[in-house]
Amino acid sequence: MQRFNNILCVIAAEAEQRWVLERAVTLAQTQQARLTVLTVLEPVPPVAGIVPQSVEQTLQQRFIDHVAAQLRDIPGAMAPQVKVVFGRGYLAVIREVLRHGYDLVLKPARADADLRSVLFGSDDMHLLRKCPVPVWLLKEGGAVPYRRILAAVDFDPAAAAEATEFNRRIIELAAALALAESAELHVAHVWEAAAENTLRLWVPGTGEAQVAAYVAEERQRHERWLQELMAAAAAVWLGQETLDYLKPQLHLPRGNAGKEVPALAHALQADLVVMGTLGRSGIPGLLIGNTAETILHKVECAVLALKPAGFVSPVTLQ
């Protein structure tokens, strides 16, 4: 199963976020991964009588001391690297990822009052759209350990190989965390009978029985796909023993994924949703674009969001 080797935990310099550090330390321990704790500060402007470099060094040391004080009371906490960088929030974070090869960004969600999102602020949304590695946004006050984890998967028949690989990563991550947290694993695939209204309104002689048969056939097709996906998880990705232990519960809600995934997460009282956020040309069906954005604006729990293989961040080091 996929594991993380180099974790970047991003916290605010001014806030007491011991709960985030606890989650990061525990994850790094279970994954046997390196851990770096980062804060991003606004650059110090040149002012008469003040040397920006000396001020930045003072701020960096104060943040290192601040993190060290919070780590003292965390059982078994290692001494992670602690860094301060100066720049613009999400851009600085993504550039750190590009420079140092982190394979996970972990940070607390910070909602903005002027956004539609229940949980996430503008920097969070930029990271979800543009960061090249998985982004795990934590919810303050959430259950520790998690009780229920929901993996949202989808497929595109026109790009079956790429879709299967992306869904494999989603299921592997969700399963690994469910094992680590002793949590229930739920796997959801939202489906639609796309031609239902077309048949009813525009195909002469089509009766309700025929429409109902079409809808039933579509549901069976999507159910077969989900069963085949989980069979591959048992046979190849995770192993039958792991699946037997986790006993994942499968869900096939019908409707629009942007509405049904948050509704299911709410109904299950899920603590974490694992999902894809952005696709690339040729994979239009993987919870991308407006669908993913809608889910993120409505979901009320923590989110672990992945990009498909081959995704290139629009953020560069220049």
Spans of at least 5 consecutive residues whose pLDDT stays below 50 are none
Radius of gyration computed on alpha carbons:
22 Å
What is the strand content? 15-25%
Mean pLDDT: 85
The CATH homologous superfamily of the largest domain is named HUPs
Number of helices: 10
Q: What's the total count of β strands?
A: 10
Query: The biggest beta sheet, please?
Result: 10 strands, mixed
Number of structural units classed as domains: 2
Strand ordering within the main sheet = 3-2-1-4-5-10-9-6-7-8
Multimerization state:
single chain
Cα separation of the termini? 35 Å
Q: In one word, what is the shape?
A: elongated
Helix and strand sequence: EHEHEHEHEEHEHHHEHEHE
| CATH architectural arrangement of the largest domain | 3-Layer(aba) Sandwich
Which structural class do you get from the secondary structure elements?
alpha/beta
DSSP helix fraction: 40-55%
Report on this model:
This protein is an alpha/beta fold and 318 residues long. The protein has 2 domains: 1-108, 3-Layer(aba) Sandwich (Rossmann fold), CATH 3.40.50.620; 142-318, 3-Layer(aba) Sandwich (Rossmann fold). The protein is built from 10 helices and 10 strands. It has helices spanning 18-31, 52-71, 89-100, 122-130, 160-181, 196-202, 208-237, 240-246, 257-268, 289-298; strands at residues 6-10, 34-41, 81-86, 104-108, 135-138, 148-152, 184-188, 249-251, 272-276, 302-306. A 10-stranded mixed sheet has the order 3-2-1-4-5-10-9-6-7-8, with helices on both faces.
